[in-house]
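Reminder to self: tokens first, then the designed residues, so the page reads top to bottom the way the pipeline ran.
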């Protein structure tokens, strides 16, 4: 397959590094080039890395419940930076409280995210979506 580049990290003040490393490993094993920004990543850092690496997708992770606050405006900033067509993926425990996932997914899609994943989503699900969305064979 032609290798696609993913920029990933944990947004905001969230520091859950283990899940981030597991996803990085799974994406690399699936054949993606991964630029992992680590934890406590700002929106501007995602955008800068995506531009510098000509990334094919940005993957945002958040587990501490403040994902909505941290992700709001990312689509608009990407568009302003010339990344109008880059898909945004987000996953984790994205809101505080017990909000049904369907509501969370709707909210994040309205914020410009192409794919939204609840906590505990197996990496294989995201990998299959990435391959489909990015036109990767196999």
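Designed residues (138 positions):
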């Amino acid at each position: 397959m032609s290798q696609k580049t993913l920029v990933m990290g944990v947004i905001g003040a969230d520091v859950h590094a283990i899940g981030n490393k597991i996803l990085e490993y799974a994406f690399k094993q699936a054949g993606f080039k991964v630029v992992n920004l680590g934890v406590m990543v700002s929106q501007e850092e995602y955008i800068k890395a995506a531009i510098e690496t000509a990334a094919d997708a940005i993957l945002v992770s958040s587990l501490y419940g403040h994902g909505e606050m941290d992700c709001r405006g990312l689509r608009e900033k990407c568009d302003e930076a010339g990344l109008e067509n880059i898909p945004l993926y987000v996953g984790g425990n994205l809101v505080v409280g017990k909000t049904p996932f369907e509501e969370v997914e709707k909210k994040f899609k309205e914020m410009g995210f192409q794919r939204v994943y609840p906590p505990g989503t197996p990496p294989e699900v995201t990998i299959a979506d990435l391959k489909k969305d990015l036109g990767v064979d196999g």
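The mean pLDDT is 94.
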